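Researcher: Let's run the pair from yesterday's discussion. Sequence first, then tokens, for each.
Model: Starting with the first of the pair.
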Amino acid sequence: MTLNITDKFLWDVYNFLSKAGNIFDSTSKYPTMYNCLPGPKNPIFNKYKKENGAKKFSKLIYYLKSNRYIRAKNLENKQAIILTKEGISKALRASFKLEKSRRKDGKWVMLIFDIPQKYKKSRELLRSILINSGFKILQQSVWVCPYDILDRVEKVLQVHSLDRYVKIFLIEKI
């Protein structure tokens, strides 16, 4: 499945930051990419400028900023992009649309959750995350998935502070 340009860009930025290793700076809890706005040396920016042109790329950045997926900030006298909580979440949700592969060990991911009634919106958010990531309902609060997406699901849960309500297991059979 192909992603729209917004999702693709956010996922590429997130991947770039993840592979860089040191993606968190001391002043922010969000991943940060230094020297990238306008960043003539940044490979991701160059890729999107070449594919879409400078004008469309500027519109993309404007759209991402106005929807609060990214923030531009001066850090240590350098321009930087900061992926916001919404940007990280959108990037991770976009990754679930990519081709999924079954786990090589044949195990299934089982997720059990118990979110209090007063957090109904959080429960609905979790269910939409599970559906988008390929989970199937086994029982009311028990979901299973054969795909190798454990790391991405854990990150989404952490971003939305849902991890305290969820238990994740690897099981051999259903």
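Model: Moving on to the second of the pair.
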Amino acid sequence: MKWLQIRNVPYTFHDLRSEELPQALLEQWLASDYAPYLLNRRSTTWRKLSDEEKQQADSHPMPLLQAHPTLIKRPVITDGESILDVGFAPSHMEDYI
């Protein structure tokens, strides 16, 4: 957010920890080319999952991501309609401002 603020780029912040992610939006994200990048396999939440849950994530991640939204790699950068990038990489961000 600081990176955006310094550059005076308007943005909307959606806190996955306190605000529910609409199912339709998550379905749209999982249908996008960025779907493989959405699951954060380095998170503390991921490490606490059972082996069964981790296997489920590979074939059908929707229920797991709804139950544990912190498994979504952040930030998810969108233009309001489509995902532009997942994760923060300043070099990629320059392409969008």
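Researcher: Give me one sentence on the second I can quote.
Model: The chain is about 40% helix and 5% strand.
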